[in-house]
Description:
Helices cover 42% and strands 14% of the residues of chain A. By secondary structure, the first copy, chain A, is an alpha/beta fold. In chain A, strands 1-8-7-6-5-4-3-2 form an eight-stranded parallel β-sheet.
Amino acid sequence: MNIPASVRLVEVGPRDGLQNEATQVPTTVKIAFVNALAAAGHSTIEVSAFVSPRWVPQMADAAEVFAGIERRDGVRYTALVPNLAGLERAQKAGVSEIAIFAAASETFSQRNINQSISASLEAYAVVCRHAAAARLPVRAYLSTVFGCPFEGDVPIPTVAAVAAQLIEMGAYEVALSDTIGIAHPGQVAPIVDAVAKHVSRQQIALHFHDTRGMALVNVSAGLDAGVTTFDSSAGGLGGCPYAPGATGNLATEDLVYMLNGVGIQTGVELERLFDASRLIEPHVGHALPSRVYRADGSHTR
Amino acid sequence: MNIPASVRLVEVGPRDGLQNEATQVPTTVKIAFVNALAAAGHSTIEVSAFVSPRWVPQMADAAEVFAGIERRDGVRYTALVPNLAGLERAQKAGVSEIAIFAAASETFSQRNINQSISASLEAYAVVCRHAAAARLPVRAYLSTVFGCPFEGDVPIPTVAAVAAQLIEMGAYEVALSDTIGIAHPGQVAPIVDAVAKHVSRQQIALHFHDTRGMALVNVSAGLDAGVTTFDSSAGGLGGCPYAPGATGNLATEDLVYMLNGVGIQTGVELERLFDASRLIEPHVGHALPSRVYRADGSHTR
């Protein structure tokens, strides 16, 4: 394994995690959860999404969550925005940066955001111009990079081209995302290398779901490919692996345990992460799937 | 990741897996399970253990299981034996080879097999001599290599010394075992390299439990360290990760999915493995934890 001195973690539990949970979590609990994640040492926390409440009811309280959280120095509190209306709401809420989300698969783009890839990129370019004017950094997600539930394999040149366009329009980073948790480590270097022909490796993040238990070994392959930014979700929030079709995010605890083991700094403290997971767990209606949390964190105190 | 053309899998579900399950599985089901594992392409299956039925009630029917299974050409049907009495029973049952089990931690050795490490090695040396006379190959497990529940860290020189003695007394292979599922990938190369000073790398196998979700990334580190034999358990049999303290084995499905992905041959077919797991799952009283099985295998048919 390639061992950089440190990597940057992006905590997506409050957004990507909770968005995929069936149970509505109270706003006060979300606020406490975000504060606990910051206390654990996270420097980037995706707090919520300024999307249509009809589309994603779990994110309807985005403004209230931003209004309630404690702002720590050095922590970026981010939010997903789908369009200019979302950007406006996000600005009012005082986000540190925004995230946009495109797809590498045409069918997934149509089904997920009801736009073709090219139409979505045109719209995001406008969002990026407005964000730049407001001095808001933009992060981009690129979904279905490792496989699409509708199209199967996604051509690597398409992935590379869309990733390049997202950076070109102003995103500081593109998170190559395994939306359905189907990636295996053999895919990681070819895809990262193809994208790295257009953007710097420092602009590439990897976002894995642990549906098939491959997330950590994919991170390991990502480290070997020179990537140093990884997304994860406290407790593996985002769907219970015991339910068919569930697609939990890579658990932050599992990632930190591995990185601690090989001596890669993250700035995140495992015991404080357990605090955050213990705080949210009673509100999602099932045991959190993180194996490190289950083994070492869920039953302490 | 280092990518050999193929690796050898040792299927330990019927023994190490079932031994750690609380529910007594009927003998006929065990027989069908072993047959299904052979049909999936496994070349080495640890079928049972000739240990005291009072000590391990789940293994009390070892002779009946061996009497009932179909013997396929090219498949080794193995059994754990603790002593000469066990060896005698194993021989009568017609095992292809036996496995002995020592510990790298003195306290664990005392608690697990009620002997000091050196006393156990003396006894196993006698078992090895008798096995050699009967032309039975011997595999050795070395437990608590990556950490001991009583002693914590286990000195690497002790691991290397005991591993070397097991090979010297006649074992063809030593399986370095992470008994409590605490290993991280940073430990793998130092331990394998230390053992490889005394024995050939082809004589080293790795046996991981997935308690903290590290098993696959540890296998990846093992491949990098030149190891080409790995133990796993169909479905991740051996304890549910949702129960505190559970210590499920690395799931064969997850291992095969990863190895398929990176192009390493195993001879084992994923779909046929699902058949074996679907066969055993209703008899263990909980959902099998393999994530690949849960995502792709448990709800088909």
